[in-house]
Amino acid sequence: MNSIPLCEPNLAGNEWTYVKESLDSNWLSGGSYLRAFEKSMCEYTGAVYAIGVSSGTSALHIALLVNKIEKNDLVIVPNLTFIATANAVTYVGAEPLLIDIDSKTWLLDLDVLDEFLTTQTYQKNNYCYYHKSKQRIKAIVLVHLLGNMPDMERLLSLTQRYNIELIEDAAGSLGSFYKGKHAGTFGSVGTFSFNSNKIITTAGGGMVITDDALIAQQVKHLITQAKTGTIEYLHDQIGYNYRLVNPLAAIGLAQMEYLNSFVTKKQKIAAYYTQELSTIPNLGFQTISPGVNSNFWHFVITVPNSRKLIQYLAEFKIETRPLWIPIQELPAFKNNVYISKNHTTAGVANKGIMLPCSTSITQEQLAFVVKKIKSFYL
Ligand SMILES: Cc1ncc(COP(=O)(O)O)c(C=O)c1O
Question: Going from the N-terminus, what domains does the chain have, and what CATH number goes with each?
Fold first, then answer.
């Protein structure tokens, strides 16, 4: 058996054709592929505006800027996520306030959030402040981890009651829906990543989606160096070079043509692993919230001795990865406020393993992974 990669890109469609056409057109920075890719993201997600950017991280940075998150503001972030979510908050001078995750869904724990907002914050001039530091809690960056989404009605009722802006980090959840509404369309802004391990890729890239015309205009302005003059180099504020370039958007457009089949394949992979591995004692899965149609971007199990299992599978050239280290355990964030009842993040992170889940994985490869996991435990 050849090696089985964790999650590799699947460039089986029109990628070469569209990239060649985009290069032949000589429109490299912007161009028709960028516009077509953005349009297809609007059509797929139902968002009114979609703006291509250079990465999921730059998408988050811009989302925070257009929501006017500033120095000393607090931004609620789940303690289990890829570090980019927390890093982006620091780019605007704000501080992530970390909240533990739910033991079943592995998403930001809404009970912990509710209790925190009720007991540890106060309202002044209709804004929400943290008692201890008197800092304003301006936003939540909600992460739809691994494709799962929380009870969005409950979350929205909390953000509305406390007047906290909702930004959705939907980096890995293109293709996930809550009661038919796409991830990233509930808050003021949603962000996506098209890094090479995502469900669709542009090699590197991202997207900002919003229904707000003013926000869309500000995003476009900020990602193009805040240039106001068409000829003169007039810039009315500090801007960024965060655009998605045309040849990469060409890859994205070709990938969008396969998105539905990629989601179906990811869901089949998840169903197979769940069925085959559920007989192993003490092995856990992420619970998908009611009403969610997950894209199962990554399939993760929790097991005792996770690091040993990773090593064991590597002997058979099966690539797996541990889950992310809790944000509050990382040096840059160890002094941040962390709200938790049971330290759930640490347990899930210690036990979590990402299993091979490329959309090109074969049934034979999946069966081999299952066989080797079973042989380790049973
Ligand atoms: C939850 C989350 N947020 C943000 C990012 C950052 O995206 P990018 O790597 O495109 O900058 C990722 C990437 O994996 C992610 O998983």
Answer: 1-378 (3.40.640.10)
